[in-house]
Amino acid sequence: MKQSAARRFFHGIRGTKGEGNCIPYRDMRICFVTSGTLESYAAHPAKADISVLSFRALGEVSYERELKGQTSLFEDVALLSKECGVVIAGCFTDARGMKRKSAVVAEKGRILGVSDMAFRVDGGQYRSGAGVKIYDTGAGKIGVIVGEDLYFPRVAETLSLCGAELAVSVFERQEGSLEQVLMRSYAFLYGMPVCVCAYGYAQAADIGGKLRFATPHSPFVFDYEREQEYHLVEIRHRGLYRKKRSGF
Fold first, then answer.
1. Among candidates 223, 232, 229, which has minimal Cα distance to 209?
2. Residue 208 DSSP label
3. 5 three-class SS
C-alpha cells in the first residue's frame, strides 16, 4: 500500500489508538487537538505531558453561567487535567457581554488561570483582556499566546524575557503561511520552541527556527527535546552623556 504524501513527509510518524500520530523527538510530549470537542477528546485522551486544544474544544464560555453552576466547562478542563497533565484549551469567554478570545490552563485537577488576547485589531468583535501570562507547571514554564497576539512580536519577546521554556499559541484559523513564518521567527529570535494549535492544523518550530512538524492530523502527539538558547549581546549606544565634575 502506498503511503500518503503527508506520511512520507513525516518520516518516522507512527499512529496509535488515542495518541494520533507521533514524531519520536523525546523529552516532553505534547498532544495537539485541532478538531472535535473537549468531551470527545476526554473519551480517548492521549498520554502526554501537555494537551493543547483549539477554540472549538469549548466554544463560548459564560463566566456568569459558570459561577451559577449552569455550565461546568472550566470544571471539565480541570477534571481532564487529572488524567492528561497540563491542559490548555481555547475558548471565547463572555463576561456580561464583554467577549474575549481566551485560553484556560489547568493542571492536576485545578485551574491555573485564564489568558486573554491582549491586542484588539481595528475594533474587532473580541475585546482585549489581561496581560500575557506564564504558567509554572510540572511540564515546565509555559507561555500562552492567544489569537491575534501571534501577530505582535512584543508578546513572544515578553514571554521569553520572563523565562518561558515553551510558547503555545492557540489560534483560530490560519489563512496562509504568515503564522508559520512568525512562529519560526519568534522561536529563532527569542530562543524558545513555539507551537501553534489552530482549527484543523498544528505546527511547531524549534529554537533554530526550523519547522519540526505541520499537520492536519488530530489528535497529533509530538515529542520535543527541551531547548533554550542564550547569548550575551552588546550594543554601542549614542547618548547618556554626563559631564564629569572637576571639583566640589
1. 229
2. T
3. helix
